[in-house]
Amino acid sequence: MKKLKVAIYKFSSCGGCQLQFLNLEDELLDLTSLVDFALFYEARRFVDLGPYDVAFVEGSISTPHEVEIIKKVREESKIVVAIGACATSGGIQALRNWANIEEYKQYVYPRPEWIEVLKYVEPPSKYINVDYEIRGCPINKEQLLSFILQLLKGKIPTLLIDSVCLECKRKGNVCILVVRGVPCLGPITMGGCGALCPSYGRSCYGCYGPMKDPKPEALNARFKELGVKLNEIKLLLRQFTNWSKEFRKVIEEYE
Fold first, then answer.
1. Has residue 1 got a pLDDT over 80?
2. Is this model's pTM higher than 0.90 or not?
């Protein structure tokens, strides 16, 4: 059987999502007999040039040079998969979208005029067509493995679209929002993490981004009933996936 030729690219990000490939450990050894990791700078020096069957893209687009590269990735890849919060909704880098980047440059760099950046940090989907998104900060390695295996079997990959609340129900977690009155983004956040934070008594902070049709305005109204201040609601949504369209709509109401 012909191996699946894969490229793994990193843009503006921490590198944690592509590290999940290596965290597969034993499974990864088996995968190498089926998958040719032709481009994977975090794991190997050798690069086998494209075209590629699949390109996994980590990170947001923050410079004009990255725009050029991501367009080239699209041209030489049959399937492009955005992995992680940075690649699906801008990530932590997108927090600068709410501030003055020129002012930041003055504080951070001794020669700010040398720094060429875009006005806004955006996910790759702003510039190219992305075929699939695997959410998370970082992504879930089991979900990643399942996605790759579906491709190898010739299936059209399926990914979760339901909220974290359903995962809490399956695990028998007591609802933090209902029972304790603690603001939780679980009702509007896409599942896939296994309700990790609520399982340890901590509210969800939305690192998987908005679920399908999340209706954050309804949850926002519930937060107000709990006495959560408007600025606190804004900060709850202005985290890992702050630049997602659904979350941004609520944030902008308080700007």
1. no
2. yes
